[in-house]
Amino acid sequence: KLTGPTTFSVSVFHNRIDDYIHARTLDAHEDFQLIEYAQRDASFTGIEGAIRQQLDATFGLTLFGDYVRAKLEARDGDRDLPRIPAHRVGLRLDAKWNAWRAEAEVYRVGSQDDVAEFERETPGYNMVNAGLSYNGRYKATPWQVYVKGNNLGNQLAYAHTSFIKNAAPLEGRNLSVGVRVSF
User: Fold this and answer.
1) CA gap 21, 10 in Å, rounded
2) How far apart are CA 162 and CA 140, in angstroms?
3) Are 44 and 68 in contact (CB under 8 A)?
4) For residues 171, 172, 176 and 182, what is the CA-based torsion angle, rounded to 10 degrees?
5) Which end of the chain, N or C, is less surrounded by CB atoms within 10 Å?
6) What Å distances lie between residue 36 and 33, 121, 163, CA to CA?
7) CB 172 within 8 A of CB 149
């Protein structure tokens, strides 16, 4: 449903890909990996969705989430595809008042323990983000001034999709202030 005070979207998918090209780890020592790019049939199955409720003229609340499962097909049984993200579920509060926009969200990324050979499990984490912006226009040129805070809980978090996840975690608490001009 795409209109009205309550909207939602759901996507369910299953893709089977012949000769999917992936980075296959042949050997690992500490954080170093010997990689071979290989082809094998693969399948991806998942769901993503969101439901949003407009609470009043200013505030809206969204519940969202996604999940994907990916397998490489093999004669001796299917194997987990490497570097597939873990499931995620979250809640977002947004506000719009005149030229002002604000958003606060909290979400949980689950642990990823469906791992390929030589791949390490990745722990889950919670993330809290918030932002505030003011939108204006000078003659025909739109502009925006904003402030965003990400990872406000300063969580130690790792992106399972990264080759260097253990050496380079996601950034900690950070604040961005900026001006955006579209022309």
Assistant:
1) 28
2) 41
3) yes
4) 30
5) C
6) 10, 20, 13
7) no
Q: Which one-letter amino acid corresponds to residue 178?
A: G
- The pTM score is 0.85
The residue type of 4 is G
Fill in the amino acid letter for 10: V
Tokens encoding 74: 């093999």
Residue identified by tokens 């998942």 is 46
**Residue ranges of domains in the chain:** 6-181
Radius of gyration of the chain (CA): 21
Q: 9-23 burial, b if ≥16 CB within 10 A, otherwise e?
A: eeeeeeeeeeebebe
The token pair at 28 is 């690992």
Q: Which tokens sit at 76? A: 């001796």
pLDDT in tens, 55-111: 999 999 999 999 999 999 877 678 899 899 999 999 999 999 999 999 999 999 999
Query: What DSSP string runs through 63-103?
Result: EEEEEEEEEE--TT--EEPSSPPPPEEEEEEEEEETTEEEE
